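Per reviewer request, we include the raw input and output of the structure prediction for the construct analysed in the revised manuscript.
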Amino acid sequence: MPVPSDTPLLLLHGFPMDARMWRYTTDHFRPMRPVIAPNVADLVGDGPSMAAMAHAALEALERAAPGEPAVVIGLSMGGYIAAEFVRSHPDRLAGLVMCDTRAGAESAEGRAGRDTMIDAVRRYGVTHGTAPLVERMLHDPPRALMSEVEAMVEQQDPEVVIACIEAMRDRRDNMAAIRSLTAPFVVIAGEYDELAPRLVEEALAHLTPHGRYVEIPRSGHVPPLENPEAFNAALEEFLVPSS
């Protein structure tokens, strides 16, 4: 099912980064179509929940492209927001791209880990509190890229970070919402992602009969930064399917 060439893209970034994570993607696609890439700091105003952030993302889309459906692209935490968008606003969905993420609720072990991270951020700050996660995000990164991500993380507001962790901990199971999806759907994932392994991502893609799985080589949890050329090519193929 083709996606019209002027369809807006709504990009939802991963944790604990911000919209700069998408810089290669926004630079590539903005000459071709509207691109909306909000910072999660602007999405958490109504409280720490994925549903509230999905609604705020809809409002960002509405300001930029009133009444138009969008291709929603969510990476990691952004994928959790995207899944809520599918559940709450399916009429505004022209396509869905889930990147290095999941659609289910958090496990008991995962919830405990989120609580530990919240405590660490409160005690020691964002950089130290999120270090165990950040250290696993990138696959064999060049020093410059690791420094860029570390600087981005360091600049995040601790209260926003805590709100995001709470929202991820308490997220709903949206597997049924993905199963009911009729819009075009692709899962794009890094070859070496430790946080959302291949089997998890392939299972997510197969929740719908028309879902596809695309693997990005030489990347971990953040392919748009680690291998932007391959990521943009995969996204471009999804947006303009071959005949």
